[in-house]
Amino acid sequence: MTDRTPRADADVCVVGAGPAGALVAHRLAAAGHDVVVLDAGPRFDPADRPAREETAIRPGETAPWGTGVDEHAERDAFTSTGPKSYPLNDARVKGVGGSTLHWQGMVMRLHESDFRLHTETGLGTDWPLSYADLRSHYAAAERAFGVAGASDNPFAPPRETPFPLPAFEPSYSDSIFAEACEARGIATHSVPNARNSESYQGRSECQGYGTCKPVCPSGAKYDATVHVSKAEDAGARVIDRAAVQRLEHDDAGERVTAAVYATPDGEFRQEADEFVLAAGGVETPRLLLLSESPQYPDGLANTSGLVGRYFTDHFYAGVGGVVDERTRQHHVGFNTTNSHQFYERPSDGSRTAIKLEFHNYAGPTPADVALSGDALGDDLLDDVRREYGNQVGVGALVEQVPQYENRVRLDRSKTDDHGSPVPDVVWSLDDRTKRTIERANEIQRGILSELDAEIRWEIGPEKTGPAFHHMGTTRMGVDPSTSVVDPELRTHDLSNLTIAGSSVFPTTGAMNPTLTIAALSLYAADRLRERL
């Protein structure tokens, strides 16, 4: 009996209830504006977290914990026709809370150099914003999430205040890595995490389940439903299972007038004074391309021809193996130690940024070992002792410089359950990024050799895959011919259409993007508030 009809006299319509949409909705609703949020996926009951996590940790299960996406459903169909296949549904989310329903929760600020990539290396482009422009919004985002961290990273950009919560202690395996890194002259430091090291704003402190991804049973890990609830408390209306099909605009093609959305009860039009697209790096450009019209035959807000272009993700590099000592793997389910020592790029642009991660969850859990074979009794116990508790792994996120040829476009040969073309993700791995992955593997092998580890696996250029950080498809810039949105994140073509999220990133760095998404969303909300 959920009412999914439009809200009359809305000031703002937000499309997407992930971290970007939730933060924008809360900030504007708290300022007294009438806000409606439309999300394509369902709501998930927080009371179901323990049951969802119990299902998720069973060996062989693939995303049974509720992302609102079914890889076999017509609604969630996609194609990938680029040189490198992109497994979109492996981590795509459609649900209130967005990608934070299953994220790891690491939240780093971009480095100052990330905003000046072209100036410093000749690669890519510069952002039209500087680190200084976002610095106060980074701090606000950390307070919103409740970030636990420490100021011990010598490579991090300058801060204005301490983190809201104290950092988590290093894991036991971090101490093993620390000795090896010290021997090789590699500096290590703590990781800012969007999870509570102590109770924060009515949410529990971390209970130490060690099963943080996808679902934190206690709710100590932040997810965007926190700000969805706050937005609703402030008067916003959030409508789930409301898949926006297209945006309509006025006769002059200067302003969006309505979002047309489909629900289980039929199709509706939500009108508003301002519109915010916060549907992620794939669905945001797809919706703009689906909203073609006589004025915009190539898609809404696409006079530059760049909607969907420069699709970018982080590549993963990793090396792991076994050591002749106990590592207590999986006692902690999230990263507590990183190294940004290899982050800055050489001035000749020969490689891109590397962020090293030390995995305290390498290798199988006891349940993985116990349930993946046929052994019983003492034989089973021997298997667990042999395969669990002695494994280590070093990972890395590797930056990819945005490429024009990589894109999200419409596949008109295949349609979803509403008859609309599905997204086609075109992705590739360039030579510079390959060299960077090789360099990351070289560093990782060196650390494991210091531990006398027997290397069991390596993920290098031939096996690498995405981190599922969808970025760059509606990039920001000053020049309307080379960007989709301006420095206020408002589209160049339509004066009342703002885009929030990682799709506006001109470049990506090698940092997990969610904190920057949040900072930009709060920045955009402030600009919107000034216009309303």
From TrEMBL:
- Ranges for the region named Disordered are 44-71
Q: Where is the composition biased (Basic and acidic residues)?
A: 45-56
Question: Keywords assigned by UniProt?
Answer: FAD, Flavoprotein, Oxidoreductase
Q: Which molecular function terms from Gene Ontology are attached?
A: flavin adenine dinucleotide binding; oxidoreductase activity, acting on CH-OH group of donors
User: Required co-factor?
Assistant: FAD
Q: Where does the FAD dependent oxidoreductase domain lie? A: 11-44
Q: Cite the Glucose-methanol-choline oxidoreductase C-terminal domain residue spans from the record.
A: 402-520
**Kinase as a keyword?**
no
Which PANTHER family does this one have?
Answer: PYRANOSE 2-OXIDASE (PTHR42784)
- Report what the protein is called: Glucose-methanol-choline (GMC) oxidoreductase:NAD binding site
Q: Which organism is it from?
A: Halarchaeum acidiphilum MH1-52-1
